[in-house]
Amino acid sequence: MTTPVTIIGAGLAGLTLARVLHIHGIPATVYEAESSPTARTQGGMLDIHDYNGQLAIGAADLIDEFGSLVLEGRQSTRILDPDGTVLFDKTDDGTGGRPEVQRGELRRMLLDSLPTGTVYWGDKVSGVRALGEGRHEVTFTDGTTTVTSLLVGADGAWSRIRPLLSDAKPEYTGESFVETYLYDADERHPAAAKAVGGGSLIATARDRSINAQRERGATLHTYAILTKPQDWFAAIDFTDPDTATARVAREFDGWAPELTALITDSDTPPVLRPIFTLPIGHRWDRLPGVTLIGDAAHLAAPDGEGANNAMLDGAELGKALAAHPDNVEAALTEFEQAMFTRSAKPTDGAEFFEHLFGDNPPQNLIDLFIGAQQTP
After folding, report:
1. What share of the chain is helix, strand, coil (3-state, %, to 5)?
2. Rounded distance, CA 296 to CA 13, Å?
3. Of 182, 187, 344, 359, which is most buried with the most CB atoms under 10 A?
4. In which element (H, E) is residue 315 found?
5. How far apart are CA 26 and CA 320, in angstroms?
6. What are the strands, taking DSSP E only, across the chain?
7. What is the pLDDT of residues 132-157, one digit of tens each?
8. What's the distance, Cα to Cα, between the start and end of the chain in Å?
């Protein structure tokens, strides 16, 4: 099969690109390794910023649909001492520029906005090769192939398309997240639900943190964050949920029970999520017929900007291609130079991550939030 625009990866970046292209009458095909839209959970809450993510949603002409997904009150934030003392409590008054939505619902919104048959599920890339004149052949694990005049890698941290452009490989940051869920928390886990409040909770110490957020339906989605080498986690048998949970919870001995319950009372097995990044300012030389967007291009630590910038990448690339319908290389050059400039700058969220594990948590984090409130 031959397609003019082939997008590898049906995450937020790839789907936003496909949607913007569709609006401008440019056909695209998306290939996704996962077997279906519901093959795995899609992560938790996302705060969608007015300077990147919301711009992308506007370019995708989905503002009204996005508005229906917003969960009111979820911009509230609490910072607690490990002993459970509330040190900072910002209530969402509805005026913030970062409304919260669930990632899975945002992805579904984008999928529903595309023509039937745009996304091919269960197509995992096994290889890709250049054919010359900007054309590439992509081979999938089932042996099928597709040839494209424009190949876009939107396939995340471990992109199979990135090696065409760059030798860069993701590196471990030194932190890993252990993910847990408490369902129907107001009824079944009232102490933990009260601690989290209506939005998000952060309880942090020098090299560890418990971050939780209230999702739809009184679900509490938690990440226990630990600064440990990968070997430390490798010694834990995560196929034995009880043993793994107990070992992670031991790192929070002495913390308030309503906080540790977010780990020990989980209604799901703990899931290990090690954090990797690409070098800040990652870039590549222009290669005809191929580019990268989202985490494939500029993977960073979870700083609140990743999904926003991924969608902006997709929107900006789509607009560039629409603006240069007869000159794909001009569109790619314009897009990449703007993306390289944007991704080389420290993000607002990067400062948050530094303060989360700084020399004086949680006070440095509180100072950061207070400063953000005072900034016009």
Report:
1. 35, 25, 40
2. 10
3. 182
4. helix 306-323
5. 12
6. 2-3, 6-8, 29-32, 45-47, 77-80, 86-90, 100-102, 119-121, 125-132, 135-140, 145-148, 151-153, 171-182, 200-204, 208-214, 220-227, 271-277, 290-292
7. 999 999 999 999 999 999 999 999 99
8. 52
What token pair was written down for 29? 């095909």
Determine if the peptide bond prior to 362 is cis (ω within 30°): yes
Averaged over successive runs of 10 residues, the pLDDT of the chain (376 residues) comes to: 84 98 97 89 86 97 96 90 93 76 96 97 97 96 96 98 97 96 97 95 94 95 97 98 98 98 97 95 96 97 90 98 95 97 73 61 72 53
pTM score, whole prediction: 0.93
3-state secondary structure 283-308: CCCCCCCEEECCHHHHCCCCCCCHHH
Cβ neighbors of 117 (< 8 A, separation 6 or more) are none
Rg (CA), the chain: 21
CA dihedral 280, 286, 287, 292 (to 10 degrees): 40
- Six-digit token string for 209: 């943190």
> Using one digit for the tens of pLDDT, what is the confidence trace for 113-139?
999 999 999 999 999 999 999 999 999
